[in-house]
Each structure stands twice: as C-alpha cells, then as structure tokens.
Amino acid sequence: MIEIRPAQSKDLSALLELESSCFATDRISRRSFRRWLSHPDCVFTVALIEQQVSAYALVTLRRGTHLARLYSLAVAPSARGQGLAEKLIKASEDGARDAGSIYLRLEVASTNYAAITLYKKLGYKQFGLYEDYYEDHGPALRMEKCIHPYTPSGDSRTLPWLAQTTAFTCGPSALMMAMAGLPGDYQPSPEDEIQLWREATTVFMTSGHGGCHPLGLALAAQRRGFYAQAWINNPGPLFLDGVRDENKKRVMRIAHESFVSQCEAAALPVHYEDMDQQQVIDHFQSGANVLILISTYRMDSMKAPHWVVMSGYDDRCLYVHDPDRGDTSTASMQDEDARSALDCQHLPIARDNFNAMSRFGSSRLRSVVVISSAAKS
C-alpha cells in the first residue's frame, strides 16, 4: 500500500539512506535535510510503501512571489516502476498551489530520459538549458509548468537577465537589462555596472555603500542615448529611513538635490506622483522597459530598497527579472542562500502582493523609471 504524506523529522535517517542510494553526487546533506524538514517555505512530501520511506519530493517556495521550484526528487531503486514519482509530483503541485504558487520549475539532467519523459507527460515544458550545472559538469534542462492555469496577456519580448556582481548594484544591473532589452547597440559590461553605480549612487544607506537613486538611474540612461522618465511619489530627499548619522543624511540630501538639478538641466521628465499598475503595464505595452523599486521584506524579511525590471504581466501577476542571486560568494548553489539564475528570471509576483512590495520605508516611497529606445518630444 502506498501512502503520501508530509515529511517529518522522524524520516531523517530514511531520507539520508534514500539520498545515498539514488545519487552519487549533488547529495543533500544531513544538515540541509534537517533545515528543510522545519523550513516554512517548502513543500516536503514522502511516499511510503509498507510504512517505509521509499521516495521524496522537495519543493521550495520563493517568498513574495508565486514561484515554486522542484528542488529534489528521489525514488528508491527497489520502489521504481510503481508510479511514485508521478504521485509525488502531483502532490507537490497541489501543495505549492495551496501555498499560492502559480509556476513550478525544475532542472533535470539532459541524459535522464525517463525523468524528462515523465515531466513532459505531466505538462512541463523546456524553456532553457544550464551548461555545466551538476558536480559531474553535466548540463541540465530547465522546465516549467503553470500549476494554476490562466490565459497570458502580456508582452513576449526577450529581456536579458543579468546578475548584480556586488551587494549594492541592483539598480545598475536592472538598468543594464532594461537598456540591453531595447533596440540599439548597447552592450552591458561589468565596467558599466560600476560606472552606472558611480553616476547614480545615493552615496550612503543605513550601512555600507549606497544604493541608486531613481533620478540618477534615469540620468545615466539618458546619457547613453535612451529616453528616460521617472515617477516618484515623494519629492525627497529619498532613502533617509533608518539612516541615523546626521552627516550621512547631509550628504544624501546633497546628492538628491544634485540629481534634481541635473534632471531640470537635462529636461528629463520627473513626475512627483504614483504610477499605478495599469500605467506600468501601459508603458510596457508601448515598448518601454520599466525599472521598479521594491522592498525586499516579503522576499527575505529584510527591509531594503531593491531595483528590479519588469519582464511581463498577465491577469494575475506582474513578472520581473531580479538581479540578486543572494550571497553567491559564501553559499554553494545547493544552498537556499544562493539562487540559480532560473530562480531570478520572470518572477511572478501577484498583483496584490506587488502593491505592497513596491512601497519602501515609513514614507511608503514608490518609484518607477521608464526607459525607451528613442527620444520623444
């Protein structure tokens, strides 16, 4: 008799034994299993045959989005051929859907033909390829399924994804994606990432290097031949929430006033008002790319301003490219603290969540920068 149920702490030893029997490399460690068994942002399911754990599926949930990822799936060699994988995947889809996910994504070795056949049977479609993904340097297919079907209505343009290379260059990376996704010959580079930050930085934040000011990003885009506009619901100065040092505040005020003066001198349109979701979509539909300032609180519980770029929309969600992969300098790609590129592209964010995410700080700052390829009157 087959039983499907949530994984429990008492399953740890059986899970480790199962992992060892199924994988020669890329194994989940005891420490990681223990963490996932108590982690709130996952769907962890096991299949039992005669009360013995014979298979498991682990799905991780991306906070603040409607995106889930099949992190790992294993079936004991002695239990194969009984449909456990299919049962676990369907149970995982149900759990992820109940948690609010719209998409379930996965990676699978390109030589694992049986798994690929099963995923295709269940409605998963390939949308990419990772070269040199596994410990043995083998490639992985990237597959995806909408587990909450809907009729898409968004733009299908191709927008490149770029990872920020420092903790403070989300703005430049988002801007490079936006500019590279428009007609023209702009080529992003690590050098330009730093140069854009130098042009747009607020100088300070609560700690460490400053992030990027919306007017600074708009000016930087204009200097590179793009038409830019900025929407800010607060005349500023910006980002002073949480900054206690009065000298830092003084410098940030000077930087803000300088950006305002530069925009006036460059005739760059600045709208001191909110832009609602429909206006964001209208600009996207017109062919522009849109940078949006969000708070990361719903994604990582940190109240930090963060720049993303819109990549699409539908009736339920807005989609964004997020340049932040987490702490890739200290975490391996098998750790949830370091996200794969797959986890950062076309993130579906429900419209009701997005309204809350696109406000920052006690001032409820909202800001959007719209970039177009040609100058407009």
Automatic annotation (TrEMBL):
InterPro entries: Acyl_CoA_acyltransferase (IPR016181), DUF3335 (IPR021770), GNAT_dom (IPR000182), YpeA/RimI_acetyltransf (IPR050680)
Xref: Pfam families: Acetyltransf_1, DUF3335
Transmembrane feature ranges: none
GO molecular function, one term: acyltransferase activity, transferring groups other than amino-acyl groups
Keywords: Acyltransferase, Transferase
Ranges for domain N-acetyltransferase: 2-148
Domain of life: Bacteria
Name of the protein described by the UniProt record: GNAT family N-acetyltransferase/peptidase C39 family protein
Organism of provenance: Sediminihaliea albiluteola
